[in-house]
Design brief:
By secondary structure, the chain is an alpha+beta fold. The protein has a domain at 19-150: Aminopeptidase (3-Layer(aba) Sandwich), CATH 3.40.630. The chain is built from six helices and eight strands, in the order αββαααβββαβαββ. Strands 1-2-3-4-5-6-8-7 form an eight-stranded mixed beta sheet, sandwiched between helices. Strand 3 (87-95) and strand 4 form a beta hairpin. Helix 2 (44-53) crosses helix 4 (72-79). It is globular and about 45 Å long.
Length: 201
């Protein structure tokens, strides 16, 4: 949860220029196209809308808790990044009511040196279309371009779909499960080399 991170958020590096090179359109399974782009401060209300459309299961799998509304300072924190130490990519679609966010992938500084913590969420109706894999690979590629090569993620042990995604799309160095949460340490999958399962604990 971001409480501690929020407290130190303003110690971040100066905000870099908006990385327009990360904007692209992707096609999902089923033929629908969505736009992937870096998050902006004006996405804050769209994050509110996205959270309120999530099922209880999806919200719990992302935040490990159930709240009817996330605190407003969380949304502000999530929507404001420096594009280097902290970065988030959103998946958006056009609707008759305007732009709607359907997924978010992000990395944040982790406790370990030169390591980033990765998290992402996809709206329920857009799951099983390959968007999670697209967001994961895009955020890892963006992190690598900024000198970050090691990653971690905490996943609920019964979130088998998320664990399969990390296992199939990254190289797992360590996997430890305690108190219903699986802690992963991993790197990007090496080109031409199959991911390995890592050490179980």
């Amino acid at each position: 949860m971001p409480e501690a991170a929020i407290q130190g958020a303003h110690a971040m590096a100066p905000i870099a220029a908006y990385p327009r090179e990360l904007v692209r359109t992707v096609e999902l399974k089923g033929g629908r196209s969505v736009r992937i782009r870096p998050i902006r401060p004006d996405d804050e209300p769209r994050l509110v809308d996205l959270y309120e459309r999530l099922s209880r299961d999806s919200a719990y799998q992302r935040f490990f808790t159930i709240m009817r509304h996330l605190p407003s300072d969380w949304y502000h924190f999530f929507a404001n990044v420096d594009y280097v130490r902290r970065l988030a990519l959103v998946a958006e679609r056009e609707t008759v009511g305007g732009v709607q966010l359907i997924g978010v992938g992000r990395y944040e500084p982790a406790d370990e040196p030169a390591t980033a913590e990765v998290a992402f969420v996809v709206e329920d109706g857009w799951q099983e279309r390959g968007l999670g894999a697209i967001l994961l690979e895009a955020i890892l590629d963006a992190a690598a371009a900024r000198g970050i090569e090691r990653f971690r993620a905490d996943v609920l042990a019964d979130n088998h779909r998320m664990l399969r995604l990390f296992t199939s799309r990254t190289r797992i160095d360590q996997r430890i499960t305690e108190s219903g949460v699986t802690a992963l340490r991993f790197r990007r999958a090496d080109a031409g080399a199959p991911p390995r399962s890592g050490r179980a604990g």
